[in-house]
Every structure is written in C-alpha cells, then in structure tokens.
C-alpha cells in the first residue's frame, strides 16, 4: 500500500513538474532545444516509473509506531527551529539546546544529555571556530 | 613510461608536510568513521566536504584529505564487523560472515590483522590499476562529443539502476528526482528562472552539498531516532588478543587476496557497482573455489581476506571512471565528485591535461595514505576498538550538529539549513520505501552537465534528434546502457547478491 501511495504521489509530482515547465518564460535568446525540453523528458520518466511502482509495489516497509513518528516529527521541528533561531541566539546556545534534545531523545539521562549537548557545542566551537577559523553564527553574547 | 613520470611528479606534489599531515588526519578520521556503526564512507565524506571547503583548502590538499577519509573508512568498516558482528558500513557486511566467528573463537586479533593486510593489498594494487587504466580511459574520452557525453550519463544512471538496486522503477524515479532538483534555478543557457516559484533563494538552484548532507547524514540521525539505538555497542566486552597473525595464516590467504583484488577492481570500475558488490563478488567466488572443507562461514581467514581485499580494491577502481570521465561508479565517489565540483574542478579528460598536479598528486597521496593506513591499523587497532565504545546517543547529536556547521559555513544562510532538514526527512522516508539515494545524488550532480551536453548536441545539429545516435561510440554507449538496465531484470535473480536483497537497517550507508 505504501508503495502505491508513493507511486501516486510521484505521478502527481510529475504532473505538477510538467505543468510548471510549461510556465517557464522563454527569453529572446534561445537554442533549438530550449529550457523546457529537458524538464519534459524528466517529467515523462518520472510519470512512467511512478505508474510502474503503483502497478508493481514491493512488500510493505515496516513503519514505526505513531509515537516513533511523533519522535521524528519533533526532531524535525527542533532542527528547523535551530535553523531559524541560529542567527538570533548564536551558535553555542542553539547548538547546546538542539544537541541536548537529540541526545535526550536517543536515550540519555536528561542530565547526561544536557552535559553532552553543552560539550558538543563548546567542542565544535573550540575546534572549528577558535582553532580552524570557521565563521559561525554570532549571538547576542558574542558566541 | 609517461605515466610513471607523471606519477613521480605527483609524489613531488603530495610529499609536502601539509599534505602528509592532511593524509594522516584523513586516514585516522576515516578509520574511525568506517568503524562506527551508522557512519560509513559516503556520509562521512559528505559531512567533511563542507568543512574542507569552508576551511579554504586548495583543491589538491582538500582532495587528499577526503580520499584518505574514503580509503580509511573502507579499512575501518571491518573493525565493528569482526568484533561486534555489526557492519560499520555496507561493504563490510560480508566480513561479518567469517570475521565474527573468528572473533568468537578468540582469534579477533588475527582476524583484524589479516583483514587489515587484505585491505592493504586490495587498495594498493587497485591504486596501481588506477594509475594505468585511467590515462587509457582518458584517451577514449577525448573522442567524446556532447552526444557521447549525454549517452555516457544515461549509461551511468542505467547501470546504477540496473545492477546496484533491487527495484529498477524506484532507481529510475530516484534518478529523475535528482535531475529534477538540478533543474531548479536560473537556466544557464538562456537565463530564465525555472521552478523557482519566485523565491529568490532558489534562483541559484539547490546546492548539491545541502542535498548530500541532508540525504546521507541527517537521514541517518532520523533512522537512529526511530529505533532509539541508545545502548550502542559499548555493552559488549571486546577482547582483541594477539594482533600479529602467524605467518602460515598469511601465506594461506595470499591467493584469496590476489583473486579478490582483481574481482573487486573490476566491480569498482563498472559504473554503478561500487564496493559493496566488489566485496560480495569476491567472497562468493572465493567460497566457491576454496571452500573444500566447509570452513567458510565458521571463521576461515580466507573468508575475511577475500571481502576486505575486494571492497578496498573496488574503492580504488571506482575512482577510475570518476577521475577519467567525471562519472562516478558508486555512492562515495559521487560524493567525491561533489567535492571536485564545489572546488570548481570538472573531472574528465581535461582534468588530466589541465590539472595534472591535482590528479597525480591525489594518486600519489593514495599510495601514501595506504601505507599510513597499514601502519595505523595493525598496531593501533585497539585504539580504534575503543572508539567503538562511544554510545550513539552522544555520537549522533554530534554528527547532526557538525552537518549543520558545515552547511552553514558554506553560505551562512539559514534557508539552506532548512532545506537540508527537508532533505533529511525526505531521505528517511525514501529509505523506508527502499528507494536508493545514490541515483538522486548522481542526478543532482550530473543534471546540469547532462542537460548542457544534450542541448549542445542539439544546437550543433540544429535540433535533429537522430544525431544523438550518430557515431559508433554513441551507439555503443546506448547499447551498453540498455543492456545494463534491462539485463539485470532478466538474469538478476541469479546474479544479484542475495544478502544485498535484505536491506540492512533500511539500506544503510551505500558503499
């Protein structure tokens, strides 16, 4: 069933992609092939392979239980939040929080997870910023 | 003897203190990356590319660092295979079959030493193969026009889908998904934006490094979150024992190493096959010819030597098409191609003519790296064993954070970070659905070149499609592509690795 849904999704994606390709505006300079033809070829192959997947699905993968899915969703949210807050609060603070969260969810005791998070953040900061000179996001406290 | 002269020049490039130091660091990191379950050559190299790039290393040192990591990871994969029965990466899967029984019989040290030696033999002779084969391939490649290049790219995708994956439709879908991602952004030839939905960040296209790190490294973190492999490997007692193998054992395994090196190299050179297939073919073949007393699978040293020589030799072989044609033969070489592109170097025949110092410096560094790896892996193996004790609950957050640092370092754009997270989730879903990730990466990397060559061919011939099949070279490549894609569908049942049909941990790191 998963494969069939995936195939249908692929087919819709192909349709959307081809429709978007027709929307590409042409400029006055052009080659005989133009910027649209290659996307059309891609879209066609995408559609064909999606149909084959719908018709000949593999065995069902083992989907995790809802709680595990929620776990992955939460981790994604934390990572996106990390990206969005990075410039505001700086590298070390954000990284410490995100790494602690991940470590906690991977099964560490909260205290150990927090220690690990801080150590990862400081460790990366020292190695990559202080030693190797990589520029990292600067927060209100200068790190 | 041109080749040897070039190689000598290469050694002159590689033998600086900085390069030697980078090779040492690379080998060391690589062995650790290979040994840690969950981190393999392709995601290890993927994480390090942005870092090498942002540190502003010039092309040759950066390549030396990363290929040392690549070779090192191939060495390292065996450590956890033998000691813990967990393959550190996919090519090391076959090593568990005889390696772990040896360890259980109290011969872990010997198994590690034999496999280290086999790795050295495989990688060393494969590097010689690279030295002599790549320039020959370059001569052929110089005859290629745009039409032939287009056919070559199709060939790469076809064999990758045909040989290396379980479901051809999914491989094809993965490939066009990657190509589709590559079309996002301003069209290079006419200057019109495509698929950018008015979003300024998308005008430049999606950086392939963002896609690679997301798909390979972050998706691994999600896999671990799903299974919550908290306890890690650290709970099991690990005893190594003596690390010097008896001379008799070494002598016994030499023929196995020799044969496997040849098989592995061939598997590596073929586009799409890579190191996993190399180690698989070597092991099966060795079992067929020398398993007279039924000792294979119960701790036969030859069963350890064969797959290790095979996978390390394939790793060297896979560099041949990557350097000479610009078409990678496996997941990790695709990642190395990304490195070259990020440094603004286009591999292929011109690379050998215009930047011989890069190519030969790299090859020389491979020889040096190999010797370092041998030196490191025999006496220091217990040090690497200790690294295995780091639980994944501390390791994986560090991997995720280093991925973020690397990508942020390239562009300083938080938009890219969000895109990377999206790729990470996408990689996790696709792995669950058993869709291979390597064709996606290859698509993202080659899409631009593929389209450019197609359009160039069309411009030359004024839009005449039949001109794509105009030369014997092109027809040969097309035939090869079709055969490579279709034949495995027919004979696949007999030929394809049975074990590879059962994905380990949702198709863990592809070679």
TrEMBL record, chain A:
**Organism of provenance:** Nitratireductor aquibiodomus RA22
- Know the name of this protein? DUF1468 domain-containing protein
Write out the transmembrane intervals.
36-55, 76-99, 111-137
- What keyword terms does UniProt attach to this protein? Membrane, Transmembrane, Transmembrane helix
Q: Lineage of this protein's species?
A: Bacteria, Pseudomonadati, Pseudomonadota, Alphaproteobacteria, Hyphomicrobiales
Q: Which residues form the DUF1468 domain?
A: 5-136
Question: Superkingdom of the source?
Answer: Bacteria
From TrEMBL, chain B:
Taking every annotated instance into account, which residue ranges of this chain make up the domain DUF112? 20-442
What Pfam families does this protein map onto?
Answer: TctA
Q: Which residues cross the membrane?
A: 20-39, 45-71, 111-134, 140-164, 171-188, 208-225, 261-285, 322-346, 358-378, 398-426, 470-491
Keywords from the UniProt entry: Membrane, Transmembrane, Transmembrane helix
The reply to whether Transmembrane figures as a keyword in the UniProt entry is yes
Q: Which domain of life is it from?
A: Bacteria
Q: Is this entry keyworded Protein transport?
A: no
Q: What is this protein called?
A: Tripartite tricarboxylate transporter permease
